[in-house]
Specification:
With 559 residues, the chain is an alpha+beta fold. The chain is built from 19 helices and 11 strands. The protein is 57% helix and 12% strand. Helix 8 runs parallel beside helix 10.
Length: 559
């Protein structure tokens, strides 16, 4: 394959991904962003008067982690632009995926492997199975994607013997450590790689760096025993710890958005993939140790370093999986397919594919089969996750409208901490002029009607609502109109928007010529945490001009 076609294909793959996430991104804080981004920046600008104060805030503990990199990026972005832009933070977080692909490219070039083998890796990386938590939640994107990138970068530099790369590896390992909690594992992985390469002088320096980093990291560290008790979890739930480990390793193939949940058929693909990848890792580890024990040096040092890189990356991900499963699995549930963890499984798929490349090099048809499979994987991922990203944007634009109209997000009503904390944090941010919630694009029309078109099932005892509406114009990707449910508090005259769910058809039915969406919108909610009052139920239609029209129903409930 000609290099020009390869580069054009890579640009197309990355551009499609960038356009996709750019279309659904919102310039709004989400969950931990209120604390990690906005509250941190307010504290930094108002309370950090000395270098020690500033460093303490940048490296402050957040649960088990020290999220220096997240705070450093936020601070840098603010100092460069004068305000917080969640768009830019999302972009910077996702640049880590570009960095991961670039390292794969450098490894292929160093191993003298053709550049067209980069295409399947790009198709695996640049697809939306990370879901919105993985690529559109600003704080999570900076943490999860970036810790994977810095770990791979460290292993890349350690897989060469150039003296300058060793010191660069120490720098990237330090960033990895202060990006997310599992970044600490890179020091053990690095020690293993240096020993396997018999670089004893560098090993001694590396061990010294480990001692210094441990002393810094755990200075004034608070251990959360109630959140993190790996030994008891392993002893009390051994089967589900093991199952969740395999689910985590293969979670790039597990697209369920529900967790925790019971073991189900949609978990089997990720379990099988996790078992196969673990077997591949043990096989590679065995081969590397056999090579280490041989007295004669490896005749092909280029491929030997290439294998060292693959073993290093797999070791980091395997250890991350073991750490997460033993720390988080506290009952017989499946939860290690959480979408923001999937970047680790995607990386595992990429390096597993990298191991096959020397074999694929002599088999043109096999390469075409692999490329076709990864292309199908990417297309199916876009197909399945379009609906999920579409709901994400509706949900946060509803929250944006509610905030502008009522000074309440409403979407955080079931997590009362963020509903209350966000008011304090956003007021602080407004005072120091770091961020204000953008004005909602919706323009409410003065005219409304009372057409009876919703199916309403109300359970006053459980405080549950099942709502369903029908819309013939809701059929395709890029539809012109959107639909929301609305609740009017008759006591305060406040109107709240609630994002509706759209159901999409199967891949097979769409290929047969059917529209992507069914012609209905629905939701299931509990109203136990609604603000007190009597409510009227309705729905809102938003057209291509962002004009919002209300359609009220003769249906009411009390909270």
């Amino acid at each position: 394959m000609k290099p020009l076609y390869v580069w054009l294909s890579l640009i197309a793959i990355i551009s499609v991904f960038g356009i996709f996430i750019g279309y659904f991104a919102v310039d709004l804080p989400q969950g931990d962003d209120f604390d990690l981004i906005l509250h941190f920046l307010t504290n930094y600008l108002t309370n950090a008067h000395t270098l020690y104060d500033k460093w303490s805030l940048l490296t402050a503990q957040f649960v088990e982690h020290r999220l220096f990199y997240t705070r450093f990026v936020v601070l840098g972005q603010y100092l460069l632009t004068g305000s917080v832009s969640f768009y830019l933070i999302i972009l910077i977080g996702n640049l880590s995926l570009v960095g991961i692909l670039y390292i794969v490219y450098r490894q292929l070039r160093r191993a003298n492997l053709p550049v067209h083998f980069l295409l399947p890796a790009a198709l695996i990386v640049f697809q939306p199975s990370y879901s919105f938590d993985g690529v559109l939640w600003p704080a999570a994107t900076l943490a999860y994607n970036s810790v994977a990138f810095f770990a791979i970068l460290t292993i890349h530099w350690l897989s060469t013997s150039k003296p300058v790369n060793f010191w660069l590896a120490i720098g990237s390992a330090l960033l990895c450590t202060y990006t997310f909690g599992n970044g600490m594992l890179i020091w053990g992985v690095g020690l293993l790689l240096l020993c396997l390469q018999k670089r004893w002088k560098d090993t001694a320096f590396w061990m010294g760096a480990i001692g210094l980093v441990m002393a810094m990291y755990f200075s004034d560290y608070v251990h959360y025993q109630t959140r993190n008790n790996p030994l008891s979890h392993l002893l009390e739930h051994p089967l589900y710890v093991v199952i969740n480990f395999f689910v985590f390793t293969g979670s790039a193939l597990n697209w369920s958005e529900q967790w925790p949940k019971n073991l189900a058929s949609d978990d089997y693909w990720s379990i099988v993939a996790g078992i196969l990848i673990t077997c591949l890792y043990l096989f590679l580890l065995y081969k590397v140790f056999v090579s280490f024990l041989q007295k004669s040096p490896d005749t092909d040092k280029t491929l030997s370093r290439y294998r060292i890189f693959i073993v290093g990356v797999l070791t980091f991900i395997i250890l991350t999986g073991l750490l997460l499963t033993t720390a988080r699995v506290h009952r017989d549930d499946i939860l290690m397919h959480i979408n923001r963890y999937r970047v680790h499984s995607v990386v595992v798929l990429v390096v597993s594919y990298m191991y096959l490349i020397p074999w694929l090099q002599s088999k043109r048809q096999s390469f075409l089969v692999v490329t076709s499979m990864t292309l199908f994987f990417a297309v199916l991922s876009y197909f399945c996750f379009y609906n999920i990203f579409d709901f994400y944007k509706r949900n946060f634009t509803a929250g944006q409208f509610n905030w502008q109209q009522n000074n309440e997000w409403f979407i955080y009503r079931d997590t009362a901490y963020w509903e209350g904390a966000s008011k304090l944090v956003l007021n602080e941010a407004k005072k120091v002029k770091t961020y204000e919630v953008p004005t909602s694009a919706f323009k409410a029309l003065p005219v409304s009607d009372s057409t009876q078109s919703l199916e309403i099932k109300l359970d006053p005892q459980a405080k549950e609502l099942h709502l369903r509406g029908f819309a013939s114009d809701l059929s395709s990707i890029g539809h012109q109109n959107d639909y929301y449910f609305v609740f009017k508090n008759l006591s305060t005259n406040k109107i709240y928007l609630e994002a509706s769910h759209y159901d999409h058809r199967s891949f097979r039915l769409v290929l047969m010529g059917n529209p992507y969406y069914y012609g209905n919108f629905n939701t299931f909610i509990t109203y136990a945490h609604f603000p007190k009052g009597k409510y009227q139920i309705g729905y809102a239609q938003i057209n291509a001009q962002n004009e919002l029209s209300y359609h009220w129903q003769a249906s009411y409930f009390e909270q």
